[in-house]
Amino acid sequence: MFTLKGEQKVCQIGPFKIGGPFGENPPLLISSMFHNGDRILESRKDHKFDHAKAAEFIKVQARLSAQTGIPALVAMVASSTEEMKYYIDFFTDQSDLPFGIDMWVQKPRLEAMEYVAARGMVERVLYNSITPWDKDIPDQVRALREIGVKHVVVQAFDENNQMPSGRLSAFEKLMEQVSQGEFRTILVDTAAMNLPATAFSCLGNKLIKEKYGWPTGVASSNGTFMWKEAREMWGQTGFAGMDAAGQALSALLWSDFIFYGPITVAPRIFPAIVSASLFQATLSFEETKHLPKNENHPIYNYFQKFASSLGGKEQIELVHGGSAQ
Asked: What is the CA radius of gyration of the chain?
């Protein structure tokens, strides 16, 4: 039911492995900074923001990632090339981890990647994204190849067919052009429109992974954060519960990566995704009788004794590099 047919690709950005068989690698968590409404942002035009708070949020996410075994990177949002350059310089002063750029307009996106390449950092950047709405996809792909971009997000969505099959057909259409980029990493975003429709995205994930093997995922925060009435009905505590549950379900159902929203919500999202990853590993074991080979998986970080009872002490020692506790 959960494990997939066909070979599953594993992509790697820096130290982070993304994709592979169901339950093998925890999903990559991608947070957002400097988006519209970000409270640390004081003036987009003047590139003014609270540096101390921004640095602390980056450290908190990195600490949660190291603690849990859930990989994570920051995607920075900007409207102009100059603004994005400023954010890139700030982030790279704070961290050696991979990061993403998130820009809606194609021209400044490409210019930002040229800046990244000039600084010799193209290997650690996730380009977000190539979309069905871009005006000139072949030209964009050609420019990315010339710049040397390795890691891209491709959005798969068909406005005329919003069922899971529409995500698959949209991906196939885009790949006729995207394949010319010779990218090493292609992350397929199956475009969440609202909370219940995120289920269609997850089913689209399964269809794409089974047929093509590329890592798939979803901006599950689009579905949860757009349900504004939830906060009005249940307050902040109720909204936070809905958000964590919705994103954990998205992670459970064939998502190799999750755009989880503002980096400020990391303390509630990481535990939720740990729960989803534990479920994945156990569901996979039921169907395959194999535990994850990823030695940093949460099932070994938090439930090694339980994992040992499933796989045997020798197998856990082989995978985790130590004695089973």
From this structure: 19
Average pLDDT over residues 118-138: 94
- What local confidence, expressed as pLDDT, does residue 209 receive? 98
- Domain limits of the chain? 10-265
Q: What is the pLDDT of residues 175-227, one digit of tens each?
A: 999 999 999 999 999 999 999 999 999 999 999 999 999 999 999 999 999 99
Per-residue pLDDT averaged across 256-281, rounded? Answer: 98
Under 8 Å between Cβ of 270 and 29? yes
pLDDT range class, residue 237, cuts 50, 70, 90:
very high
- CA 197 – CA 183 distance, rounded (Å): 29
CATH for 10-265, options being 3.40.190.10, 3.20.20.20, 3.40.50.1220, 3.30.70.60: 3.20.20.20
Phi-psi region of 282 (alpha: psi -120 to 50; beta: other; left: phi over 0): alpha
> HEC string of the chain?
CCCCCCCCCEEEECCEEEECCCCCCCCEEEEEECCCCCCCEEECCCCEECHHHHHHHHHHHHHHHHHHCCCEEEEEECCCHHHHHHHHHHHHHHCCCCEEEECCCHHHHHHHHHHHHHCCCHHHEEEEEECCCCCCHHHHHHHHHHHCCCEEEEECCCCCCCCHHHHHHHHHHHHHHHHHHCCCEEEEECCCCCCCCHHHHHHHHHHHHHHHCCCEEECHHHHHHCCHHHHHHHHHHHHHHHHHHHHHHHHHCCCCEEEEEEHHHHHHHHHHHHHHHHHHHHHHHHHHCCCCCCCCCHHHHHCHHHHHHHHCHHHHHHHHCCCCC
